Each structure stands twice: as structure tokens, then as C-alpha cells.
Amino acid sequence: MAGTQRYLRYIIFALICLILLFFISSSSTVPSANWPSYSSPVDAVPSPQPPQDPKDASQTPATTPNDAGKLPPATADGDRMNATFVTLARNSDLWEIAKSIRHVEDRFNRKFNYDWVFLNDDDFNDEFKKVTTALVSGKTKYGKIPTNHWEFPDFIDQDRAAKVREEMKEKKIIYGDSISYRHMCRYESGFFFRHPLMLDYEWYWRVEPSIELYCDINYDTFKYMAENKKKYSFVLSLYEYVETIPTLWNAVKNFTQAHPEHVVEGNSMKFLSDDGGETYNHCHFWSNFEIGNLDWLRSKAYIDYFDSLDHAGGFFYERWGDAPVHSIAAGLMLKKEEIHFFNDIAYYHVPFTHCPTGEEYRLKHKCHCNPKDNFDWNGYSCTARYYETNNMDKPAGYEKEQ
Q1: Full 3-state SS string of 188-236
Q2: CA triplet 167, 170, 175: central angle to 5 degrees?
Q3: What pLDDT shows up at residue 10?
């Protein structure tokens, strides 16, 4: 008897399950999943499109990421400045510069669509052009560096230069034996702003392969520079390797004695020297990030300065970097208020990080950098000296990052 009742219960349970499955499968009232659509950031609701003629389907490749310039329009209002990004790279740098472009586009340029100039001492190949064009929201331009800008000048003693490289190699000085690195430093110091492609622009933002931007940048940095009468800017500063520039400051003093008219009042000598200009303290702005004014670099003052240093031979007889060369020029030939520190541009270039000081800013601008990695208040940084030179209060909370 007990067994019969147990079987009846199983049968009744099975019938109930079948009835429930029938109603679920036949119901017409259960809505289908409605996933959000992702339209252009400008138009919340996409405009209806007419049906496509089947014969035109072959003319619209569905997988092309950047088809005939049909990228989303800039999302920020207002006129654009006459400005460009500029990158010195080789074909082998493609995938590292691709990472940098993604950071710049996602954090800044998708809002503004500025152009990008790529420069190379060789011809760019089709793959480099295709990939970078697909990633950049503005126009891309590709230029080859003139041979005479990427070779030893005729006044350089080749034997002396070769001996220096060998000595630096033995001392294990970074890039000490590299010829191409020396050409790069000389080119960035005195020629990139004179390339025909760059002559179309007034402002530049230098971007290197493998950099990262950690925070959203919601305003036009070029417009900020122009409206606030800034001519040079930085995010990281530090001391230069002493072994690479033993006679640089002597060459600078020779220049200033010959051209005192190029040294302005109210400059940043205090950032560069602890004794009023007698010696150099080796502080410089790290030039792998720069936003600056091209007209200043093309000025007679800067050209005279570069020509003087170039003929001193230190790019090849030592290993002068473009960072101290640019920094000393800005420190002497610009008023101190014409140099700007972008605390709000979070930036990484191996091995240093600039993470904005101030939690409120980092949260508001979706920053993903660790403030503990911030280099600004490290003992090897010169950023505190910049604040002191300009009589500025350090950002709230900087003490926690020392």
C-alpha cells in the first residue's frame, strides 16, 4: 500500500512539471533581452538609415575600422588649435606606438580629433601607415627625415667620437655607445620642428612608443597653453646623468655670453642652478612628454642656441640628451610663468610615473594609477624645485607621497 502511494506521488509531481514546462514554452508574454545599443557619442539616438541596396553592399566593407575618415566626430565643442601630435618612430615600433595612440585617443583625442605627424629616418611601410591611420581620429601624416639631419655634421671628428662611445660602453653608461641615439637626441633638439610637415602647425604634443595616460583629459590642452600664454610644459622632471653632459653647462655659458639678448628677465635660472648660474644642478624636464609652442622653437633665439651647442660637438663627443637641451633653453629664454606643469595629466614612461596628487581629482577623472607610484616627490625628482622656483604651494596631500 505504501509503495502504491509513493508511485502516485511521483506521477502527480511529473504531471505538474510537464504542465509548467508547457506554459513557459508557449507563453508569448516573456520579453526578449533588450541590450543597450552603442551609438555615436554625439547623438544619443541614431538617425534612421534608409535600407541598403543589395548591389551597394560590396562597396561598404563591414570590418574596416577607419573607412574613409568616417570616425565619430569630436565630442568637445569649440574651435580647434593649429596643433598636432608628433612621434619619432621606426616601423619596428609599430605595436608599441599603437599602445600609446590608444591611450591618447581614449583619454583625450577622441574628444578633439587632432592630427598626428609620424617622422622616421627611413620610409614608413604600408602596415605602419594602415594601423596608425585606423587608430588616430585626426589626419595622419608620414614624413622622412632629411639625411643631413640624421648624420654626423662635417665639423665632427669621427675618431674622437668613436673613442668616446667606446669609453662610455666600458663605463656602462646608458646608450653610451649608440650612434642612432645620438642622432635622435640631436634631431629632437634642433630639427623636428623644422620638418616640412611640422611647418603647418603652431603647437605640438610629443608622444613616445609605450607610454600610458592614466586619467581622462576633458579640456583642450593646446587651447589652455595658448590662452594662458604658456610655451613649454612637462609632467616629469629629474636629474640628468652627470656622465652624459660634463661640458654642457660650459657650452651654455659660452652661448649666453655671446647672446645675452636671448636670456630673458624673470626666467627659471633657480630651477637650473643653485648658485645663480655658475654651475648646473642637472635638473631637467623629461622631454618624452612635451606640449609646446613651435614658433618659439623656430625663433632666432632658440636656433642661435641650438647652433651654438651643435658646434660645441657635445651631441657626439659626449651624449647630450634633448631633455636637458630643451629644459635649459626654456629655463633661460622663457619667463618662468611661460612653463607649465600638467599635474592633471597622469603619465607613464618607463621607469617613471606621474600620478596626479589629489584623490578627488583622481576619482573624478577615472584615473587608474597608483598614487604610491608617483615620482613627483621622490628625492630624485626636480618637481618640488619647480614649485619653489615659481613660489607655488605644493598640491594638497603631497606629504603622503614623499
Answers
A1: HHHCHHHCCCHHHCCEEEECCCCCEECCCCCCCHHHHHHHCCCCEEECC
A2: 80
A3: 53
Buried b (16+ CB within 10 A) or exposed e, 225-251: bbeeebbbbbbbbbebeeebbeebbeb
Q: Is 142 helix (H, G, I), strand (E, B) or coil?
A: strand
Burial class (CB in 10 A: 0-12, 13-18, 19+), 269: middle
Q: What is the pLDDT of residues 338-356, one digit of tens each?
A: 999 999 999 999 999 999 9
Enter the C-alpha cell of residue 226.
595658448
Local confidence band at 397 (pLDDT 50, 70, 90 cut-offs): confident
The catalytic position among 105, 290, 318, 338 is 290
What average pLDDT score do residues 139-150 get?
98
Percent of the chain whose pLDDT exceeds 70: 82
Contacts of 74 (CB under 8 A, 6+ apart): 80, 110, 111, 112, 113, 137
**347-349 and 212-213: which strand pairing?**
antiparallel
Q: Which residues, in sequence order, are CB contacts of 160 under 8 Å at separation 6+?
A: 317
Q: Is the pLDDT of residue 336 over 50?
A: yes
More confident residue, 16 or 75: 75
Catalytic: 290? yes
Cα–Cα distances (Å) from 125 to 83, 120, 142, 225, in that order, read 25, 11, 10, 34
Give tens-digit pLDDT for 353-387.
Answer: 999 998 889 999 999 999 999 999 999 999 999 99
**In terms of Cα–Cα distance, which of 326, 401, 349 is closest to 236?**
349
Is the link from the previous residue into 65 a cis peptide, with omega within 30 of 0?
no
Q: For residue 220, what are the contacts with CB-CB under 8 A and spacing of at least 6?
A: 76, 78, 80, 81, 112
Query: In this structure, what C-alpha cell is assigned to residue 205?
Result: 604634443
* Opening angle at CA 118, ends 82 and 67, nearest 5: 85
Collapsed DSSP state (helix, strand, coil) of residue 5: helix
CB 193 within 8 A of CB 298: yes
